[in-house]
Amino acid sequence: MSRKILHGVIGVLALLGGMLGLALADARGARAAEGAPYRIFMILFRGETEAERGFRDYLADHAMPAVITVRDLDHDLSRLPAVIAEAKALKPDLIYTWGTGIAQGVIGAYDQTDTSATIGDIPVLFDMVTSPVDARLVREMGPSGRNITGVSHIPPLESQIRAMQVYRTLTRLGIIYNPIEQNSASMVTKLRTLCDAQGIDLVAEPVPLDATGHPRADVLPDLVAKVAAREPQFLYIGPDTFIGENRDVLTREAMRHQIPVFTGTELEIRESNAMVGLVATYYALGKLAGYKAEQILVDKVPVGTIPVETLKRFSYIVKMSVARQLELYPPMALLDYAELIP
Amino acid sequence: MGERARNPVLRLFAFTTLLLTLTMGLAGFYAFGVSQRYLLPELDLKARTVGVAIADKVALAQAQAIPFDRFVGMDEYLDSVRQAQPDIDYLGITDTRGVLLYHAGLDQDDLRTLFGEENARGAPAWEDDDPDDEGGWALWLSQASLALSGPPVRETPPRGGYYDTQVPLVSQGQMVGTLHIGVSVGFYKEEIARQATDMIIAVVIALLITFELLLATTTLALSGPLDTLVSTLRLSTQGVFSRPLAGSAREIDRLAHRAGVVVDALLDALATLKARLIALQERHPERQARLLAIDQGLDEAVRPVDPDKRPVDLASVFIGARLGAFLFVLAEEITRPFMPVFIRGVAESSGWGQSDLIMGLPMSMFLLVVALSMPGVASASERLGRRRTFIAGAVLSSVGLVGAALGGGFVALLLWRALSGLGYAMTFVACQGHVLDHADPQQRARGVALFVGGITAADICGPAIGGMLATRLGFEAVLGIGGALAAGAALLGVWALRGQGALRPAPKAPRGTMFKLLGNGRFVVLLLCTAVPAKLLLSGALFFLVPLIATQEGASAGEVGRLVMVYGLASFLLATPFARQADRWGLHGLAVGVGALIAGLGLIPMVFDAGMPGVILAVVGLGVGQALSISPQLALVMRVCEDEVTRYGQAPVVGLYRLAERLGGALGPVGASALAAVLGYGGAMATLGAGAVVAAVVFCVVFLILGARPHPDDQIDDEEPLIRPEASS
């Protein structure tokens, strides 16, 4: 008797499930049939990176038909207004941007009054923005309330400090930064608060400016030597464009002084000689952006309700060649989860 | 003469028991010996598995060209491994020259001393130890068993009180060092003691079960029919001739048949004689007076049997009910130690895991179905017949258990448990009815006691054996075994519940009697403050929370089973003496109050995260407290409801009392799980205990003020089954 009821219940549930599945499949089919593939307009700073590969892979894996128009500024932000004008004329379904500068140009600050040069009516999905809050794209992380959403790539500073402490005891931390970069300056302020709270001595050296008001790359070796003299356990490289551009000089000099470099961004460790990094990989970030694109285009979730966020999990990377050279070997427990690269 | 007639069977029984005890004891002992032979290699293997993981890590570091003596954080890593493997006492890594590089568990100097003794082969450490220390008996047993099963497969003497397992650390085909994994001799001894306890319990339980089966088979096949035959023959010596009932064993059947032929021949001869007497009377009317006297003489000497007094094989009836009860209760009891844990697993895997609130539902469902279906099932069994009810019930139980084993999610589990509950109610009612149908009021007490004895035996054996099986085979397999046992009960029921008894329907109280009973304030207080809390504690704390907490504390299902068994043992050993004392002193109220207080108080330490000792205390408190209060409780009910019993009979009073108990039982698991959702398991346990204490205090205060209405004679006559409702699960 009970068995019959049970079978009945299971039968009804299966039927309902089947109907739901059909309905969903139908809905997706209807969208695809609705018309042409989704039109995505991509504005990039330095060509396609791993992030775009992740983005494209996500769309392909989820069978989202899309035509992607790519505009590469090739390191030249002055080309942006023309590209924005083109986007306005094309009226794509979604605009994808790479990096802080482009995002600022396309979206504008949240409290900007003149919106004539920015895009408001087309959903914008930004990727690879260091700090959307400091860049004034959004007031806070989470849903923007505007026609934008996006992905940030820097792990929280707290996590980065913890990551350094996992490797070795941290009592002094060095940092060299570009004082005229808004991102960097505010990051140093935050870092100082965190270090003070944990009794870590922060040695922060701003890069001096030349007569034209640009930071001087030529003094970097001296700055590293100055910081190294204080014997910090790590020299930290944060999301700083100027330092990022000079990463090779910085890491080389640090190694010469037997100071390991810790980084929060992927390039400094993969393509230069930082020893340890807690980073969001570009590929994973691109996939997260792809997921948001699906929410916007397929699921029709209102863009302003989709949170601006970063990854929940980051990669802990150890560059073994540097570790061996400095004879600073990773702790055994790290071997379980760290990615060891040559 | 009666004793003598039983003697051969008794002697046979005693001899078989002795033989069984010896063979099973020896078999257990031998099995223990075999496990002892392989114990050390097994421990070694376990240590080696851990060692391989560490060696892999070392190889990984070496592959990254990290120098062997420059590992960072190795001590901390080794310590983390040791934390996860509490049976490992130390871990140490030496290089090829034997220099200690990394270590955890013991400090550097101790390990250096230990490894320095590399070449000094010592005697087994326990020989230097104080022989009186813990585990001594188990070690002695272990040594003795080895004498029987052969020498240990490996005899590595411990060094400095530790067994040291060594794992080579290899990098690129070259040995770079050695990992030492130390397990203390103390742990080894504990393991031996654990296995010895397991073995003893297994043998004892196997004996108990064999004894049950032996008793049943002997009675059903041999002594029951034989006794009945003897009674029939004895009647014929008094001139009452009746054909003996057919027995079951072929020889007894043949004997009964022969006796029957003789009886028939005698009765035929008698008839012929009487016919001749009548013929003579007709031919010789003058001798009528004498002939009449002869006829009367014949009638006096040889009487046909009064159908009501025809000897019945009561022993077989009672033992049949006992066997049935034993098997169907055993089928449920073996799931006892893991049922809540199993339910939690099912809930988690079907996505209900977040809510502790619903964990109690399946167990409560079972108990609720038992409580509510009893009255309906009782009248159905009168129509259907006891045997058919029993078989149907056992089959339902079996299907329910097997269904639960096969899975299908939380909702399905609820339905399977409900089905088993219905089966349980049916089998219980059928066994009870079987006893009552056959027995006269004078014999009922004995029948009921035998029947309850079967249940108690299952209560004690079930959890322990179920736990042991679950540890080795897994929960689903034990549920399946439970299903097989219930199916076995159904098969046995065909044979064991034989015999056509006069159907004696339970007296039906007029509708509304129960409500009238609720007008008795004392009775209501008794129900609410003792009957309901007692069963609520039993199902909520012992059956639901104890397995969950003990499992959380790291106990295996086997250990949980032994823990639950303590309750059964306590009531088996203490209930009768306690009841006797309470009867003797007429202190039923006191016994009930004090028992309820003890049962509740034992749970309260759980609020302080008392761990395993707290759980053990709770179970012992519950066992002792309830052993003290359960029997006097019914006596007190009778005393409190004296007027009602006179007016409506005992049935509705006992019926209401049992219903209250069963509903309390059904409330237990859901109540406990609801509390656990808010307070955690320990908090829930303590809260249940506190609630029980409050109820007990209210009961005491009320009865101190109102009195229990003393009565000169509180012996109850057996109008209605005074069967302990074992329904639980």
Automatic annotation (TrEMBL), chain A:
Q: Which InterPro entries match?
A: ABC_transpt-TYRBP-like (IPR007487)
The UniProt transmembrane annotation reads: none
- Coiled-coil residues are none
- Entry-linked PANTHER family: ABC TRANSPORTER, SUBSTRATE-BINDING LIPOPROTEIN (PTHR35271:SF1), ABC TRANSPORTER, SUBSTRATE-BINDING LIPOPROTEIN-RELATED (PTHR35271)
Its protein name is ABC transporter substrate-binding protein
Organism of this sequence: Pararhodospirillum oryzae
UniProtKB/TrEMBL annotation, chain B:
Q: Which domain of life is it from?
A: Bacteria
What's its membrane topology?
Multi-pass membrane protein
Q: Which Pfam families match?
A: MFS_1
Principal subcellular localization = membrane
Q: Which PROSITE patterns match?
A: MFS (PS50850)
Which residues are listed as membrane-spanning?
12-32, 199-222, 357-378, 390-412, 418-436, 448-471, 477-497, 523-548, 560-578, 585-608, 685-706
Q: Under the GO molecular function aspect, what terms does this record hold? A: transmembrane transporter activity
On whether Transmembrane helix is a keyword of this UniProt record, the answer is yes
Localization (cell): Cell membrane
In this chain the Major facilitator superfamily (MFS) profile domain maps to 317-709
Q: GO CC terms on record?
A: plasma membrane
The yes or no answer to whether the keyword Glycoprotein is present is no
- Cite the entry's keywords alphabetically: Cell membrane, Membrane, Transmembrane, Transmembrane helix
Point out the signal peptide segment: none
Listed name of the protein: Major facilitator superfamily (MFS) profile domain-containing protein
- In its UniProt entry, the species of origin is given as Pararhodospirillum oryzae
